[in-house]
C-alpha cells in the first residue's frame, strides 16, 4: 500500500478503492461530524441522521472503485450521497408529527379493571371456599387441575355420575353466591 497524504481526500479515496481500510477510516473520521450535521438538517433527528450517514459511508466503501476524482472533490461527492440518502430516507419514513398522531387506546387493563378483576377473583375464591369439602375438591380437580370427570372420580373414589353431580351442585352454589354479591353490589351503588 502507498503512503497516504493525510491532507488529501482524493488520495485517501484512491487507497480506499484498492481496499485500504486505514484510508477509509481516516476519511470517515474526517467527514463524519459534518455528514451527520447535514443529514440531521435534512431528516430532522439525530438517530435517523446516524442511520443515513452509516448507509452513505457503507455505499462509499462498497463502491469506492467507482470514484474517479476527475475534478470533483471527494467532499462534494460524499455530501451528494448523504443528501440523496437523506431525501430517500424521508420519503420511505414519512412519519407524521407526534402531535398529529391518532390516539390509540391502551389495550392494557386500567386500574379500575384490575380492581374489578381482583374483586371478582376474591369473590370466586370465597364462594368456592364456602362449598362443602367434596364439592370444592371436585371443582378443584376438574377446573384447576384440569382433570377429566373420570380421572377426578377415581381420585375421590366416586362414580363418574356422582362426580358430575358434585360438579353441578358446586357450580350452582358458586353461581348463586356470585349472583347475590352482584345484586348486593348493584343495590349499594343505587
Automatic annotation (TrEMBL):
GO terms for molecular function: DNA binding; sigma factor activity. One of its GO terms (biological process) is DNA-templated transcription initiation. Keywords: DNA-binding, Plasmid, Sigma factor, Transcription, Transcription regulation. Residues 28-94 form the RNA polymerase sigma-70 region domain. Transmembrane segments: none annotated. The keyword NADP does not apply. Residues 123-172 form the RNA polymerase sigma factor 70 region 4 type domain. This is RNA polymerase sigma factor. Belongs to the sigma-70 factor family. ECF subfamily.
